[in-house]
Amino acid sequence: MRRFTGNVLLLGIALVLAISVGASAGTVSYTQSLSKDDTILDWLNTIELPKFDTSAGYQLIGVTLDMESDFTLTAGLENLANKESTMSYILDVKRELAFGTTSYISNTKNYSESGIDVTARDGVTDFAGTAGWNNTYDTETIVSTSALLTAPADLANFTRTVNSDKISLDVSATTVSWLPKGTAGSKAAFYYAEMPTIVRVTYQFIPEPAGIIAICTGLISLLGIILKRRALNLYYSSDSCFGILMPKYAAHHE
């Protein structure tokens, strides 16, 4: 029974240690939003987010960047030719999240419309009526784009120092191409787009190696003490002669 109790004790200590070390690892996130007023194409804004603070004894092991945008587009076409026309357009928008010259997230979204039949010019460039066309597209949520950074140089960029506690990131949405077309030739076209964007940085961290070593060293020492006491309990009995503990093999009663 005593041996069983000791084994359970050892198992409990190991389990508590594992839970403690695992619980000390974690994540922390910071978010910044760019509103519509700041995100009318074409736009570039610089945001600042807190760097990871290692002073509490944690080590940064990964940085996840998330960029999520909503896109609202109004486009218009007008036939200026003296004959009927079939009109279309293609719009490519590039979103990017960068640190200096290093691009962390970059993707291009395509929007297009085709087969728009209009009459010959009507004398009014209003992007409406029989010779014109316009449309406002419902807000579309662009699926969040993520980037996981683990390279030492990238982790260093996001780690707090004495002289720098925030990181500056450039966030932009720019027109890659805008191609309105009309089979009749002469035309007018416009587009107006807003792209409010959310940027989130998430830090993954673990205890510093020195702290883990200290915990493990303490556990090994504790286990050594427990094992030593168990060995002594097995070797000596509770019988005594003149108050002196006797080895079990010599202990006896007359």
Written description of the protein model:
With 254 residues, this protein is α+β, with helices and mostly antiparallel strands. It has two domains: 26-205, no CATH class; 212-247. The chain is 22% helix and 53% strand. The chain is built from three helices and eleven strands, in the order αββββββαβββαββ. The protein has helices at residues 2-24, 152-157, 209-235; strands at residues 26-34, 43-50, 58-79, 85-99, 102-118, 132-149, 166-182, 187-194, 197-207, 236-241, 244-247. Strands 1, 3, 6, 8 and 9 form a five-stranded antiparallel β-sheet that branches. Strand 10 (236-241) and strand 11 form a beta hairpin. It is rod-shaped and about 105 Å long. Residues 240-246 and 248-254 have low confidence and may be disordered.
Number of domains: 2
Radius of gyration: 35 Å
Q: Are there runs of 5+ residues with pLDDT below 50, and where?
A: 240-246, 248-254
Mean pLDDT across residues: 82
Count of DSSP E strands?
A: 11
